[in-house]
Amino acid sequence: MNVTSADGTAIHFEQRGSGAPVILVGGAFNDRTTVAGLAEVLAGDFTTIAYDRRGRGDSGDSAEYAMEREIEDLAALIAHVGGTASVFGHSSGAVLALEAAAAGIGIDRVVAYEPPYATDEHPRADVVDEVRAQLAVGDRNGAVATFLQVAGTPAEMIEGMKSAPVWGWFTALAHTLPYDLTIVGPDARPRASLARISIPALVIGGGASDEALRSGARAAAAAVPGARHETLAGQDHGVLQFPETLKDPLTDFLKRA
After folding, report:
1. 68 Cβ neighbours under 8 A, 6+ residues apart
2. Three-state SS at 165
3. Which residue in 8, 28, 107, 171 could disulfide with 140, CB within 3.0 to 4.6 Å?
4. For this chain's UniProt record, which GO biological process terms are given (predicted)?
């Protein structure tokens, strides 16, 4: 199914289950298929929406990118399910979910899993111009490598990935990496806009994640008034591969009166 965003872009989604609606937002290198497992896990209690962010999968795109367009995409999905919905976001999708909540588009609860914010102890370089330049000359391999490096992936691991099937998945979505880098922001710190969030918010960090990601989650929780912060024991940034581990914390939070 599709909805039409404010700028005319078609946004493709899959809907499962019944109950209060929950929209699932993936991060970099994600489309609706990577959140489909979580959508299925939650479908016994909720109506779940797994969608292709613009530029990915079966969704359309626009010539000029802005984070506001992705917030409008979420607003179109929320309108489709009746005007209010909870939103779960992973990684850069968690930042998008928080910014959408701050924009006041009908989100009633928001969950952010490891928004990749930088902190004083764990700064992060701004590589959006470098990635754009690599993509402009068709260097998708370089763009992916640059993104992974700034995300903290060791160089030897990146080299190993290049011969694995996942590398083709990464390079196929390389054109959307500037979108994720734009969403997180040039200094990768929580924006002042998060102080406008007035709905219940939960920020989750993985107990097995590296300290940079866990500190980013804590920074996000500190930036959102009244936000809860929880640690999911035994999980790291790849939590979407183990969606059942998210069922209890999400169900408890999203159903809480």
Report:
1. none
2. helix
3. 171
4. glycerolipid catabolic process
Is residue 79 within 8 Å of 3, Cβ to Cβ? yes
- 143: tokens are 């763009």
Instruction: Note the pTM of the prediction, 2 decimals.
Output: 0.98
Q: Are residues 27 and 132 in the same domain?
A: no
Residue 187 has pLDDT above 80, yes or no: yes
CA dihedral (100, 179, 195, 206) positive or negative? positive
Instruction: Note down the domain range covering 158.
Output: 128-179
Question: Pseudo-torsion of CA 149, 152, 156, 162, nearest 10°?
Answer: -50
Q: Beta 2-4 vs 10-17: how paired, if at all?
A: antiparallel
pLDDT band, very low/low/confident/very high, at 29 (cuts 50, 70, 90): very high
Helices (DSSP H) in the chain: which residue ranges? 36-42, 67-80, 92-103, 128-136, 140-150, 155-161, 165-172, 177-184, 211-223, 244-255
Q: Give me 189's structure tokens.
A: 């710190």
Tokens standing for residue 88: 């779960």
